[in-house]
Structure formats: C-alpha cells, structure tokens
C-alpha cells in the first residue's frame, strides 16, 4: 500500500475534523468498500485497507499530531499494522468499538446477536424539494439469505462439512519472529465459516447469500443540507454467513446520502439563499418596482432610489427551512448595476445631457470649457480698438502688442 496517500483525503474529511467525524467517515467507507459488498473487486479491497490505515492514524491523537506536523515521514519507525497483508475480517475485528462487534467472523465470540452490514446509497433533490420536503423512491441492492439453501451454501439435500484446516474453529494460529508471538487469523480455507461446501447451491454458488434489487419509499425532511444522511433502520443486510448462516440476528441500516442539486439562480448558506438582481443604472438611480426570483416564483419588491452596485437587501422568510427549527431563512439579493455596451442615438443624447448636468459648476465656468480650452477671441470695441485682455499674461501680450 502506498505510504503517500493523504489520510484526510482517503476518509473524505477536513483536517480539523473531530474524532467522531473521523469514526463516522471510516465506518461508512469501510462498509462501502468491504469485499463482501464488492465480490471479486480488487480495487474495492485495496480502498478498504487504505481506509483502515487512515483511520488507525487519525483516530489516535498522538499519531495524528505527528502526521499533521511531519506527514508520513514522521510515522516511519512507529508501531503500526500492515493492513495490506491482513484479511478484511481481521481489520473489522480491530475496530469492534466502531462496528459494534457486528461481524463475528473468524470464530470470534461476540456479545449479543450478530448484526448485518449497513448499506449506503445516494439521492439527489432540488432546492424546491428542500423547501417542502419530499418522498423519493430509493432503489438499491443488498444481499439476502439464499432462499434455496437457506444460507448454508450447500446444494439442497447435502450439508457442509467441517473445515479440516481450522478444525471447525474458523481461525488459525500463526507463529512469528521465531515463536516470540502468536497471531490468530481467519482461516484462509473456510474464510471463518468453520465449514466447507463441497456440493454448492446452484442459486448462490455456495455463498449462502444472493444479491437482490429493492426499492424503498423514503421521506426526505424539509431543510436538509447537501451531504446529510437519512438513516432507515433495518433496511441493510442480514448478518454475514460467518456469523449467522441462516441470517438470524439484527439487520444493518440503510444510509441515504442526500445531494442537493446546484441551482444557477441561488447560492445557499445555511437557511439563507443568495441571488443577484441585474438592473440598469436608470433603475438603480430612480428606484421603483423590480421582480426578484424566489423558490416559489417571481416576487415584486421596491428598489430604493440611489441603490449602488453591490448593495444588498433582504426578503424575509424567502430562504429555506432550518432542519431543526423549521424556521425559514431569508433571501439575500445582491444588486448588479448593468452598464450598456452599445447605445442608440437617443440613449447617447440623453446620457450626454446627464453627464453635462452632473459636471461641477466650477468646471462649467472654466474658460474654453466648451471649445477645448483655447484662448477666447479678442472682442472688438465699437470704435475698432481691441478690448484689453485681463490677467498677467494678457497684460504682457497687450503691452508687447502681440
């Protein structure tokens, strides 16, 4: 397994995630990539082991602190597990505090009834459905106890035989480092089932489980956010055949990850929505009635005269509901003042007049303001003599006769 994987990216969490967030992320991904859920998929098993390696480091405060400071280099030489060489059931057994001892594989004793695997799927909804809530049909696949062999994996009329490798224990002991320690692992022959099926069931090929397609109607609550999960208890899988061949025990749960589709009209921040309103500079200057898009259709409101580009105003109660309180947020409107790129002759005439009207009085009074700043012509008196020019330079020119 590569040692260069970013453990936070492997679990899909932020670097400031809490311990509980690390645990939840690992549980979901471990169940998603478990080889029993992805039979024959080597990539899924590799991802499963990557998740276990990431969790071992990030769930330990001391290892996590070292990893945050020094990365993978800081972990070299420290004690750790080689997840690449471990069987997946042994990895599950290491984290029984997370999985509730649900696996029971490898002949290990467990407290209480066996528990099946949780499942995860996704559903996409719109902002309008976030506003009102909705019922959705969720299709998913899950493993069920084979109806032909009743979970034994054996052809009807035959029975499994005891595994000769582990003697029906489901696990074997291995010596390491010259006998200095003894490690118990899942039996490689029976994979912890304690028995071997010689005449396999034609329906499930000896697995004791078959994959079935199921559809479930699920209520998505108002105000749910992207990435939040709706849990449906008991809609997961029955206990695995290693723990309970006939499926007796507690079913896992179904976790539905809700994805809220992007809406080009709005940006969501908690219960508030943000949108932009494009207006002409004439509308911004004069104010008046404008139409704003909302989740419930267009809404007319008044724009204040003199509104500037980038100014905000709110429409109370036009956001989405808060998941906990049910109270709706606001719609925040950002005003964008549009400047036309092309003008008609009439528009140019009006805007030019507006510009002239906006010029300061002093600028208008400057000599030559309208003729490019040229020296005003000398006015002739009635008697034909030139009118003397004012100012220092005017007097100098008069005196020089220029």
Order of helices and strands: HHHHHHEHEEEEEEEEEEHEEEEHHH
Which fold name is given in CATH as the topology of the largest domain?
A: HSP40/DNAj peptide-binding domain
Computed Rg: 38 Å
Q: Give the CATH level 1 class of the largest domain.
A: Mainly Beta
Summarize the structure in short.
By secondary structure, the chain is α+β, with helices and mostly antiparallel strands. The chain is built from eleven helices and 15 strands. The strands form six sheets. Strands 10-11-15-14 form a four-stranded mixed beta sheet.
Description:
It contains eleven helices and 15 strands. With 402 residues, it is of the alpha+beta class. It folds into four domains: 1-86, Helix Hairpins, CATH 1.10.287; 105-261, HSP40/DNAj peptide-binding domain (Sandwich), CATH 2.60.260.20; 267-338, Sandwich (HSP40/DNAj peptide-binding domain), CATH 2.60.260; 359-400, no CATH class. Helix 2 packs antiparallel against helix 3 (42-58). It is elongated.
């Amino acid at each position: 397994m590569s040692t260069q994987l970013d453990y936070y990216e492997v679990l899909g969490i932020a670097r400031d995630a809490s311990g509980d967030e690390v645990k939840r992320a690992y549980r979901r991904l471990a169940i998603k990539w478990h080889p029993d859920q992805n039979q024959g998929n080597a990539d899924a098993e590799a991802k499963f082991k990557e998740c276990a390696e990431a969790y071992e480091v990030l769930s330990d405060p001391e290892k996590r602190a070292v990893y945050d400071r020094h990365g993978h280099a800081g972990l070299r030489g420290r004690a750790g597990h080689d997840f690449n060489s471990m069987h997946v059931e042994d990895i599950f057994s290491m984290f029984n505090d997370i999985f509730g001892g649900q696996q029971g594989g490898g002949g290990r004793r467990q407290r209480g009834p066996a528990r099946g695997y949780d499942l995860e799927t996704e559903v996409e909804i719109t902002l309008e459905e976030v506003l009102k809530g909705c019922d959705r049909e969720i299709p998913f696949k899950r493993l069920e106890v084979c109806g032909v062999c009743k979970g034994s994996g054996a052809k009807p009329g035959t029975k499994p035989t005891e595994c000769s490798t582990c003697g029906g224990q489901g696990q074997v002991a291995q010596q390491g480092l010259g006998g200095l320690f003894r490690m118990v692992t899942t039996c490689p022959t029976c994979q912890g089932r304690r028995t071997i099926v010689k005449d396999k069931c034609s329906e499930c090929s000896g697995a004791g489980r078959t994959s079935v397609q199921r559809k479930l109607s699920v209520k998505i609550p108002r105000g749910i956010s992207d990435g939040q999960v709706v849990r449906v208890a008991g809609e997961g899988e029955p206990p695995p055949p290693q723990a309970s061949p006939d499926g007796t025990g507690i079913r896992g749960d179904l976790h539905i990850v809700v994805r809220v589709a992007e809406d080009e009209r709005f940006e969501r921040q908690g219960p508030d929505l943000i949108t932009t309103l494009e207006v002409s500079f004439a509308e911004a200057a004069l104010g008046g009635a404008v139409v704003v898009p909302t989740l419930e259709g267009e809404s007319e409101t008044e724009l204040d005269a003199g509104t500037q580009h980038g100014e905000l105003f709110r429409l109370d109660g036009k956001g989405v509901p808060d998941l906990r309180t049910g109270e709706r947020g606001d719609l925040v409107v950002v005003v964008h003042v549009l400047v036309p790129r092309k003008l008609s002759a009439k528009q140019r005439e009006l805007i030019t007049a507006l510009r002239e009207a906006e010029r300061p009085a002093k600028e208008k009074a400057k000599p030559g303001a309208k003729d490019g700043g040229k020296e005003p012509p000398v006015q002739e008196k009635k008697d034909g003599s030139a009118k003397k020019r004012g100012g220092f330079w005017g007097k100098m020119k008069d005196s020089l006769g220029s």
